[in-house]
Specification:
Strand order of the largest sheet: 6-7-8-3-9-10
Structural class: alpha/beta
Number of domains: 1
Bound molecules: adenosine-5'-diphosphate, magnesium ion
CATH architecture: 3-Layer(aba) Sandwich
Radius of gyration: 18 Å
Shape: globular
Distance between the termini: 40 Å
């Protein structure tokens, strides 16, 4: 299976390491709380979260099941809104925008990857990636080249015409990555993207993530509880019961 990483490793060796402090802050989370009204009593799921994502960082959220990782990721992506606190995305007050404004920002500047691969089963890899360009309003004339470029980035250019069921779990997840980055988002949010994959496939996904941070200048925030995966993070936030420790 061809994964185009060898070439990039030599490129990386020639580049000067970039001082982390010169990276711009892309997202700031200040004192975010999220309370759900479940039945009678309120359920406090996020209890005062502070965090920061800088450009081109790979940041991970770890924590036990039920600790609030998905709830936080949903707030970062505007799929949910905090009950209290502030989220600034690219200098804009993300949490206090209207739903419409937030949707526009999300479609243009964010990409999402979930544990279960979220591909359209009847569409080929190419058509799945095209779908996200269509959703983002990218002119049709640009689709062909961009789709090819994205599938090449994830090492699947030769699987372009395969449908999800003809691909392995790891390959499906790589199509999902191609789909999530096709419209050139600034921020990629991934909820346990390796959760259903074995360690070999998980390592491939992480190599792809590192590759797209360099080539696409994207920032990635993902959840995981796999200790071997945590090793490649620029920063790890550990969540316990709705707070970072
Ligand atoms: N929409 C919701 N309504 C009520 N409770 C919720 C909702 N979403 C999440 N929860 C609760 O919030 C807690 C944290 O969930 P979640 O963020 O999914 O944790 P994690 O992703 O770390 O496993 C859980 O107790 C869950 O049941
Ligand atoms: Mg979760």
């Amino acid at each position: 299976m061809a994964i185009p990483l060898e070439e990039d490793e030599t490129t990386e060796a020639r580049l000067e390491p970039e001082p982390a402090e010169e990276r711009r802050i892309l997202l700031t989370v200040k004192d975010v709380e999220r309370t759900f009204q479940a039945g009678g009593s309120p359920l406090h799921v996020l209890k005062g979260i502070h965090m920061e994502l800088k450009e081109r960082q790979l940041v991970m959220l770890k924590g036990r099941s039920g600790s609030g990782k998905t709830t936080l990721l949903n707030c970062l992506g505007g799929l949910d809104t905090p009950s209290k606190g502030e989220i600034m995305f690219n200098g804009l007050p993300f949490n206090s925008m209207s739903d419409n404004q937030r949707t526009i920002i999300r479609r243009q500047h964010m990409g999402f990857i979930f544990q279960a691969f979220a591909l359209m089963p009847l569409l080929s890899a190419r058509e799945n990636v095209e779908l996200s360009l269509r959703m983002a309003g990218v002119p049709r004339a640009q689709w062909k080249d961009r789709v090819a470029q994205c599938l090449e980035l994830v090492g699947l250019e030769r699987r372009m015409n395969h449908r999800p069921f003809e691909l392995s779990g790891g390959e499906q997840q790589r199509v999902a990555i191609a789909k999530a980055i096709a419209h050139k988002p600034m921020l990629l949010l991934a909820d346990e993207p390796t959760g259903e994959l074995d360690s070999g496939m998980s390592a491939q996904i992480m190599a792809v993530f590192q590759n797209i941070i360099r080539t696409e200048q994207v920032t990635i925030c993902m959840t995981t509880h796999d200790p071997t995966i945590l090793e490649v993070a620029d920063h790890v936030y550990e969540m316990v019961d709705g707070k970072f420790i």
